[in-house]
Write a structure and sequence with these properties.
- By secondary structure, this protein is of the alpha/beta class.
- It has 2 domains: 126 residues, Rossmann fold, CATH 3.40.50; 97 residues, Winged helix-like DNA-binding domain superfamily/Winged helix DNA-binding domain (Arc Repressor Mutant, subunit A), CATH 1.10.10.10.
- The chain is built from 8 helices and 11 strands.
- The protein has a 5-stranded parallel β-sheet with strand order 2-1-3-4-5, with helices on both faces. Strands 6-7-8-9 form a 4-stranded antiparallel β-sheet, with no helix packed on it. Strands 10-11 form a two-stranded antiparallel sheet.
- Helix 2 runs parallel beside helix 3 and helix 4 packs parallel to helix 8.
- The longest helix has 26 residues.
- The two termini are 35 Å apart.
Length: 245
């Protein structure tokens, strides 16, 4: 069920720079959020394990003492935790951003950041996750929408259930978002810049291989022969095209 309108979303900020953690907490609390801060990876994992049902989103730095934010994110995803994760990092290289998405981050925002952009991304992630939780409740009540089928796959975007050759496959929130965007634009050539803007929520002008990495991931999951794709096609110098049949 969706959260109660009287309940304030709870955000965990994992940041070892105390002045920055205090500033983020102050601004988020001013927006009506409940905020907990920790300054290292093990403390973050412990808090999530103990408070998962009362936690709505993580803001995660990458350069943490003892355990990197990459490891924290990957550990959470491997354990099946799908709470939204917003990486907030001073790392600006393309490979850093790509690695962040590869380990399961939903959004990546670089420091220094604009407060309004941070608040906008938090709101977007919370809304997306709440809708997913609500749709899962519809499944329990037997009212969920039917899934989408292509090739040997069945996908339910409401419940995040994915079957390939009748075997369950797990996709991250971002992978599902990318797949859904392809499905909604089936047959159309989609420029890389459009995917960056509408799926990643970032500028279409940045130079990153994140899109290519995620396309390869979808091919490995859904293509009978990933080296000769029939569904997730690269259109040279133009973008990508999804073909269901």
């Amino acid at each position: 069920m969706p959260s109660s309108p009287d309940r304030k979303p709870h955000i965990l900020v994992v940041e070892d720079e105390q002045h920055l953690a205090v500033g983020i907490r102050y601004n988020l609390q001013a927006e009506g959020y409940r905020v907990t801060t920790v300054d290292n990876g093990p403390a973050a994992l412990q808090f999530v394990a103990e408070q998962t049902d009362d936690l709505d989103l993580l803001i995660l730095d990458l350069m943490l003492p003892g355990m990197s934010g990459y490891t924290v994110c990957e550990t959470l995803r491997q354990s099946g935790n799908d709470k939204p994760i917003l990486v907030l990092s001073a790392r600006t290289l393309t490979e850093d951003r790509t690695r962040g998405f590869d380990v399961g981050a939903d959004q990546y925002l670089t420091k220094p950041f604009d407060l309004d952009e941070l608040l906008s991304r938090i709101k977007s992630l919370l809304t997306m996750y709440e809708r997913r939780v609500y749709r899962r409740s519809q499944v329990t009540n037997g009212t969920a929408a039917s899934g989408y089928e292509f090739a040997n796959a069945r996908v339910n975007f409401d419940t995040y259930e994915v079957l390939v050759n009748e075997e369950s496959v797990r996709l991250t929130q971002l992978e599902m978002k990318l797949l859904q965007y392809f499905v909604e634009n089936e047959g159309r050539v989609i420029p890389r810049s459009e995917l960056l803007e509408n799926v990643w929520g970032t500028s279409g002008e940045i130079n990153t291989r994140a899109v290519d990495q995620f396309i390869l991931r979808l091919r490995r999951l859904f293509e009978p022969n990933p080296s000769e794709p029939k569904h997730f096609l690269t259109i040279r110098d133009a973008g990508y095209r999804f073909v269901a049949r």
